[in-house]
Amino acid sequence: MTDDRIQVTSVGIVAIGRNEGERLRKCLMSVVEQAGRVVYVDSGSTDGSVDMACTLNVAVVELDMTVPFTAARARNEGFKLLRKTAPGLAYVQFADGDCEVVSGWLEKAARFLDEHSDVAVVCGRRRERFPDRSVYNMLCDIEWDTPVGEAKSCGGDAMMRADAFEGAGKYRDDLIAGEEPELCVRLRAAGWKIWRLGEEMTLHDAAITRFGQWWKRTRRCGYAYAEGAYLHGAPPEMHRVKESRRVWIWGLGIPVAAIILAACLGVWCLALLLIYPAQVFRLALSGTRSVRENWWRALFLVLGKFPEAMGQINFLYNRLAGKTARLIEYK
């Protein structure tokens, strides 16, 4: 590298991926000369990702794919090797293989944790690398534009205090989604704080170009809401209860009510469904971004309640049938 990046020896990196190709190379190149130790966890790549990581002198963990894959399990395995090979590292930066860590982030995040002993997790701004390539990429970029300051949770890219992460029990291996907010619930219960900085953290390449990809990703989100509410929905946390309630009302309750009323009282009752375009209109007018972004965001927020409802039903079925969840992949 030719820039002036400073190596942060107190930070180790755990990156996870499968068949990320050039995106993985950018991810690893962004950290190999900055961090004290880098571990890449591969989940069955067939594109030479493992060999490429080895050429960069990155430690590699190849997951046993006979065991159901989850990102949570991959991160835990990476952390396990990181702890074994570099036990003195104070912090671990988790990153997805389709993300590039912005120059200077590791130093800023580590300094923040050094100065705030009550904070276990710090994250920054994740941006979409190509927001103009599809409306779905743009929606991801909007989704990640969250308020700075003390937060309730983080995403997949975050720097964590290694001892706090381990002390909280790490990620739950069995969660197919929503493992980061679930971990943050346990960390906060243990007295730790989660913090979001306004600094640039990672560039993400969502590569979502088809409606079907967006639908699956959103269905997985609904599943995560349901599981989060099941695990931590009791007071005082009420984790994901509000989100799940909205999904059931908008994704299932209103359509079912309209059909039942139409069958009993007449087809004119289907006018109840006009509440959906009205909601789109309301959300678009209350948006804080450009007119184009506000309208697309409003449309897909409302439309998204239907795949989210499918995810909720999927979780409920798995619980009642005693079935193991399978990862809902969208790319």
How does this structure look, described?
It contains twelve helices and nine strands. With 331 residues, it is α/β, with parallel strands linked by helices. Helix 1 links the parallel strand 1 (8-17) and strand 2. Helix 7 (179-189) runs parallel beside helix 8, helix 8 (211-232) crosses helix 12 and helix 10 (275-285) runs antiparallel to helix 11 (291-303). The longest helix is centred in the last third of the chain and has 25 residues, at 241-265. The protein is globular, with a radius of gyration of 21 Å. The model has no long low-confidence stretch (mean pLDDT 94).
How many domains, as an integer?
Answer: 2
Per the CATH scheme, the topology name of the largest domain is Spore Coat Polysaccharide Biosynthesis Protein SpsA, Chain A
N-C termini distance: 31 Å
Oligomer: single chain
SSE class: alpha/beta
Which residue ranges are poorly predicted, with pLDDT under 50 across at least 5 consecutive positions? Answer: none
H/E element string? Answer: EHEHEHEEHEHEEHHEHHHHH
Q: Please tell me the overall pLDDT.
A: 94
**Which CATH-level-2 architecture of the largest domain?**
Alpha-Beta Complex
Share of helix among residues?
A: 40-55%
**What would the principal axes of the Cα set say about the shape?**
globular
CATH superfamily of the largest domain: Spore Coat Polysaccharide Biosynthesis Protein SpsA, Chain A
How does the major sheet shape up? 9 strands, mixed
Can you count the beta strands? Answer: 9
The helix count comes to 12
Q: So what's the CATH class of the largest domain?
A: Alpha Beta
Percent range for β-strand residues: 15-25%
Alpha-carbon Rg, integer = 21 Å
